[in-house]
């Protein structure tokens, strides 16, 4: 997922968001969120960090249509990167987040010594290969350039998609951590590594690009229709989930939200709104 290109911009954004969230008195702030012996105050809004689409869209559906019936006050904070939602969750500036999959979270926790854990799977955004220059997978030839996300988990995921469709060959056993150096046969292709969020903007400058589902949607691409090829949903380890800092899984507000996110109403919303570009993937995340 996403790394910011400019560290100075990231630092400035982090500072601004920290100040903003603190000023809001989010329900995870120790001075405002805890009551009665350290238990979560259920009268406080549950603040969840999310990517704009489809995560915030799904959460806002829950907020507007379902939460009141469960006595849940839900607040959605939108983030456009893949770093701040986890750091804000770790630091208690938000109560949880909804934007990522397990391979990314495992890598993030390891690199940042954070303690964020999944609660419940919600959906899958199939990663896709897109192009403005070719009409079919068979049109991709030697000498052409493919853009891929540059972060650890999504680059490996992108390369696995390309390998599964015989565009490249990878070393045996590299799995989701595959890197460009693990390609044993590029079949004449060139690769351009870019920050995940910028890949859609580069689509016209390369012959094809592997784009994350949420960024494809934000770029007005319809994955089910526009992708040359999409990941298969069956057995896919990249379901996106609701996550919290370890120890907060049993917050009654989190449990209410988890139940609503796996409800028939949310399943119907996802299927009708996204038409196969985002698919329900309910259940308990793999450990």
UniProtKB/TrEMBL annotation:
Entry-linked SUPFAM superfamilies: Periplasmic binding protein-like II (SSF53850)
Organism in which the protein naturally occurs: Streptomyces virginiae (Streptomyces cinnamonensis)
Record-given protein name: Lipoprotein
Regions annotated as coiled coil: none
UniProtKB keywords: Lipoprotein, Membrane, Palmitate, Signal
A UniProt-annotated Pfam family: Lipoprotein_9
Family the UniProt entry places it in: Belongs to the nlpA lipoprotein family.
Signal peptide limits: 1-23
CDD domains given in the database record: PBP2_lipoprotein_Tp32
Bilayer topology: Lipid-anchor
Compartments where found: Membrane
Gene3D superfamilies hit by this protein: Periplasmic binding protein-like II (3.40.190.10)
